[in-house]
Every structure is written in structure tokens, then in C-alpha cells.
Design brief:
The structure is a homodimer of 318-residue chains. Chain A has 318 residues and is an alpha/beta fold. Chain A is built from 11 helices and 13 strands. The first copy, chain A, has helices spanning 28-36, 54-62, 125-132, 147-152, 154-161, 171-178, 183-191, 233-245, 258-275, 282-286, 289-303; strands at residues 2-6, 10-15, 20-26, 41-49, 65-73, 79-84, 91-97, 117-120, 140-144, 166-170, 197-201, 207-211, 216-219.
């Protein structure tokens, strides 16, 4: 199996209340590819400038990330400068420089056409649609987005939502897009667009999985004492989710078993938690499946409770 | 077994964005007693005025809530007037009228002295301490508080914390009291005051249980499509938690089994979810143990995942 991802590969400058870094690798597709390639082959579609460090290209190639769809152009890589607030849950974008990304149009190499899973990271809906139109076969199309497009490109975004199977959104984005205070009601509205799955990201509270068939799963977050840099945690979450799904069998109708979907969201949370442990993709670079399995076992202990409890007769009070 | 509770019994006026009610039964001890008495005997210590409706006193008496410690004085019952914001997660107190509560001093009837569990609802720390000084034996002392006392009565509150076994706090209260951004770090600081357990309430995200012995449990919330009135949800949570704990055996050293503590927090979340389904204590009045058991079974499905997952060899990438 393999996973096709289209999204940004960037150079970031990040400032948290406790430290700062400049000229570090960022972008949704960078986090996603590094995470998902722990599980399976990743086929990257993106663009970088001639200033992008060769070291990271070599790292991805060695880590089963195909770069055949990565366009390398004379000029500057997309740059993002951000600063986190004291509580790390909010941040301000201080600057963005598009560089070679300004003229980006995704192109899928023919060798990518057998990708069974597709991840549209949070780039402009128009570019997401351009990519969708080149896809001839795909078992699962997954869409991520960001608040900016909800506000400025709502119609185009809605067209993309109608053409994918699974949507990832933060709680705030669900509320904003559906104009519903209740997440449950908002997600029901999203299903009217034809989605099969909606995954609601809740940051440090974990994630919720909704299925159009009524499936509901609340995945616990891994408790972190310290967050070094939350940038890319959502993209790493998606990488763990799709990476895990890429390794499982689907039913005859192309649907996933609920147990597989649950495991996939748990993997997403675990990978997202590791992403916060360092700046850029550094922690994800050294991450091993044994470390992932250790956090998985911890989460079982942290979140499971007696499934067999029944009220005793003396507790029943009509 | 029985549970002693001291706290407010009030008459509320509540306004939400969708509806409003006046002159309804409120107060932390009202919610707690109604919830906990689903599980076991409750011994109430509180004060009301002569205007408090007899119907509710009769209801509690019929529901194994002893009112021997309820002082009924000529005058007006404590009144609270609140208005919720559009998202129901924030509210403003518009008015409070202390009435007979202004002269309240808790007194424990001798018949209450065998209460094994003690719940100090969110009244003034000085009154909580007055009650503690009358308690001769208690297996588990549990303390709730509110933001007001963190700001105005920090020293007195700290003295009470030092004398109890379990503390219930919202996430925001943990951050404010400990001045730590990380809940994990903040809770560790709380344990230095001698607590055995800290339960962190996360509203619609559920609750976290921390033990001084390293126990950690993240209890899922029950997903609600509609919240009619969140008033008292935290008190009902405490009622479910202590109510359940009152029905279990403790070890020779007086400690609870982790599985019992986990079940107790899940019960707390379930009862809290029911409290939101109507104004005042109305939903809790009609609640049955079968309805609680049904939500318990749902939460198992909603939050449990394969506990046995191990990476397959082909997934391992060094």
C-alpha cells in the first residue's frame, strides 16, 4: 500500500514562550510524510525552493517517502513565522512568504497512481481540487483544512468536502463551518455533504471519530507534562491515522472495521503527542514503532475501565 | 454506608440562550444529594429559609436523604441568579441574596457521625473547616471549591486542602491555584499538600483522575447533542463519584482499588451528563440505575479500543 499526500513543505521560524528556532523544516506535508512513513510508503506531492536543505530530502528518501512528485524550483521555499501565546493553545502568524509556492500546481507522477490512500493537507481548496481531478483510483480520500479557508474559500472548500470520504476538522472549525454550537449536531450536518467519516480534533483533549453509520469513538489524548512546540501536531496526527489505516484490510465494500478505525485514531493521537516533544519534525525523525507501542499500552491503562459493570440490586432505586 | 454532604441549598433563577426558569431548586448540596442518593444514604447538612418548597424536602426524605442536619429558619433561602453565554461554557452571576445562609454554621447531628464518606461542597473554606472539626471518623474526605475562594480565601482553602483526601477542581482552577500551565505539573504540586487523589473536571471533555501513587485515568464524557442547563453538573458529577464509591469495599489500608476509582469517575461523568438534560434537579429526580447502566455500556463502546495491539514486524521501522 501507499499514501499520497499533497501539502506544504516549508521553512519555519517558531517562537514559544520558552524558546525559539529559525529556518527549521515545517509545513503540513513534512509532518504528515515523516509520521505516515513510519507505517507505510508515502508519495509526496509538494514544491520547495532551491534553498531547501538536502539533508531532509535525503532523510525522507531513506524513510520510504517518494519525492518523485516534489517539485524543486529555483527560488525560495515557502516560509512561515509564528509565535505561540503563553498557554501554547493559541498562536499568531507573524509572517508568510510564499516564494516558489505562489506558482504551485500539484502534479501526480504516474508512479503515484496506485496510492490507495489520499491525504489532502490544509492547502487552498482550489489546489486540493486540482489534485483530486488527477486521481484515478483511491480507496480513501481524506481532507484536512484550516480556519483561513473556512472564512475565505467556503464555497470551494464545500466542493472538495463533497468529493472526499473523511474530513478532519478541529472543534472550532466544525462550529464555525456549520454554525452549530453542538459538535454532534454540526457533524450530522457535515454528513449531509456525503462524507463517510468525520474526525474532530480536540487538541490536548484527544479526538472524536464519527461515522455516517453511527459509529462514535472518543480517543484519549496522551498526557504531556511539557509541550516544546505544538506546530504540526495536527498534521502528525493525520500521519499516524492514515499511516495505520494503510496497513489494515478493508471489507468487500471498501469500508474499514470499526476496531481498525479506533486503533487508527489512537495512533494519530500518539504520533501527535510525540510531535510536540521537539521543534520541527525532529522527534518524529527518531521515533520508533516500539515507542509508539509503549504509549499505546499506556493509553489502554489510562482510558479503559471495567466493561462489565452492572448495577447490583441494592443500588437500583426506581 | 452513608455520605455526609455540607453545602448550599438554594433557589435559582437561570437564563440560557434558549430558555429561562425562576424560583427553581439549586445549590451544590441539592444536586449532590439528589445524585448520590441514587447509590446510597445521604446525610445533608445545609440551611434553607421558610420559603423553601416542602415538595422537595419530601422528595429527598423519600429518596434516602436524611434532613436531620438541614436547618430550616424563618426568612429567605439563599438565591442565585445566573445567565449563560451563547456557548453555555461560560456564565455570569447576575445576583446573589444570602438570606438565612448569611448566618449559617454547619452542625453535624450525632446520627451522622457514622458517615463513611464526606463531601465538602463549594461553600466558604471557613465553613468547610468548621464542619471538618466536627467529624470524628470518615473514610474519605472529598473537597470541592470554586474560583471565588481561590481568589479571596486562598490561605483558608489551602488549610482545608491539607485536611482532605481527595480534591475536585476544574482545569482552570488547577491552573489558577498552582500557577502552572501544565495540568500534570499543577496536580503534582497539589499532591505536595498531602492529598491522595485529585480529580480534574474538564466539562464536556470528561474528567481526569490522578492518584498520589501514580494512578492516572482519563474518563470519557458522554456526548450530548443538547444541553438544557449545565448548572449543577459538577455537583452531580461529585454525587455520582461519591455515590458509587460509597458502595464499594476498601482495602485494609483504607485505599480504593484503581478499578473502583475508575468506575466511580465514569459514574460521575454519566450523572453529570444527565444533570444537563433539564433545569434544576429535575432530570436527576427521575433518573434510574438502569438508565445509568445504559450510558455506562455506551461509554464502553465509545471509548474502549483493542487493548492487545502490537506492531507487526513489517511496520517496525528503526
Amino acid at each position: 500500500m501507499s499514501i499520497l499526500v499533497v501539502g506544504s513543505v516549508a521553512l519555519d521560524a517558531v517562537e514559544t514562550p520558552f524558546a525559539s528556532r529559525e529556518n527549521i523544516v515545517g509545513g503540513a506535508a513534512s509532518y504528515f510524510s515523516t509520521a505516515a512513513s513510519l507505517y507505510d510508503q508515502v508519495n509526496l506531492v509538494a514544491i520547495v525552493g532551491s534553498d531547501f536543505p538536502q539533508e531532509y530530502l535525503d532523510f525522507w528518501r531513506n524513510r520510504r517517502v517518494s519525492l518523485e512528485g516534489l517539485q524543486i524550483r529555483e527560488g525560495k521555499t515557502f516560509r512561515w513565522v509564528g509565535r505561540y501565546h503563553l498557554d501554547m493553545n493559541a498562536r499568531d502568524t507573524l509572517d508568510t512568504q510564499l516564494g516558489v509556492y505562489a506558482d504551485f500546481h500539484p502534479r501526480i507522477p504516474s508512479s503515484y497512481q496506485d496510492s490507495q490512500l489520499l491525504f489532502l493537507a490544509n492547502i487552498q481548496p482550489q489546489l486540493q481540487m486540482e489534485l483530486l481531478e488527477q486521481v484515478t483510483q483511491s480507496r480513501l480520500k481524506v481532507l484536512d483544512t484550516m480556519e483561513l479557508w473556512l472564512m475565505t474559500e467556503r464555497a470551494a472548500l464545500t466542493e472538495v468536502i463533497k468529493r472526499v470520504d473523511m474530513l478532519l476538522m478541529s472543534e472550532e472549525e466544525v462550529r464555525q463551518y456549520t454554525n452549530q454550537a453542538s459538535i454532534v449536531t454540526g457533524v450530522r450536518q457535515l454528513f449531509e455533504l456525503g462524507l463517510r467519516y468525520v474526525v474532530v480534533k480536540q487538541g490536548s483533549y484527544g479526538a472524536l471519530l464519527f461515522g455516517a453509520d453511527g459509529t462514535y469513538f472518543s480517543a484519549p489524548s496522551y498526557p504531556l507534562e511539557e509541550v516544546i512546540d505544538p506546530t504540526g501536531a495536527g498534521d502528525a496526527f493525520a500521519g499516524g491515522l492514515l499511516g495505520y489505516l494503510s496497513t489494515v484490510q478493508v471489507g468487500p465494500d471498501g469500508s474499514y472495521a470499526v476496531d481498525d478505525l479506533k486503533r487508527a485514531v489512537v495512533h494519530g493521537n500518539i504520533i501527535g503527542s510525540f510531535a510536540c516533544a521537539d521543534f520541527s519534525i525532529e522527534r518524529l525523525r527518531t521515533l520508533t514503532m516500539d515507542e509508539i507501542a509503549a504509549r499505546y499500552r499506556e493509553l489502554v491503562v489510562y482510558s479503559h475501565f471495567d466493561p462489565e459493570w452492572q448495577p447490583k440490586s441494592h443500588e437500583i432505586k426506581a
